[in-house]
Design brief:
globular; 0% strand; single chain
């Protein structure tokens, strides 16, 4: 990836992988995406004209690439200082519809590994600590 928004695109990809991990986009997940896109500091400077194509590229990647490979590739583009943030957002998204199923847990565990976050710290982040 090249360009000014490499990190943001990686974050969008990772979050899209979590959102699609159970095979459906629940209404709560769609609402969560809108809130994140509109209000989260990570995406504050991304207009819809940039954010939406990122989301579409992530969707296409997930349709053509095994999730583990795609998530690993995106994870390498997340700077170390933002890895806990992205993991926390992924956890929030996984739990937003009240149904953690499909590949959501394996993706979260894979993120812990890819980001070098210990299981203990991962549990703290899941609890919001």
């Amino acid at each position: 990836m090249s360009g000014a928004f490499v990190f943001e695109e990686a974050a969008v990809g990772i979050l899209a992988a979590v959102a699609g991990a159970d095979g459906k986009f629940a209404a709560e997940e769609v609402a969560w995406w809108r809130r994140v896109q509109d209000r989260h500091p990570l995406f504050a400077d991304l207009p819809a004209s940039i954010f939406n194509p990122m989301l579409e590229r992530a969707r296409l990647t997930m349709a053509s690439t095994p999730w583990r490979e795609a998530v690993s590739r995106w994870a390498t583009d997340v700077p170390p200082e933002h890895r806990e943030l992205i993991f926390s957002l992924a956890v929030e998204l996984a739990f937003v519809d009240g149904d953690v199923s499909g590949q959501e847990v394996p993706i979260l565990n894979h993120l812990l590994s890819e980001f070098g976050i210990s299981k203990e710290r991962g549990l703290q982040l899941i609890r919001g600590e």
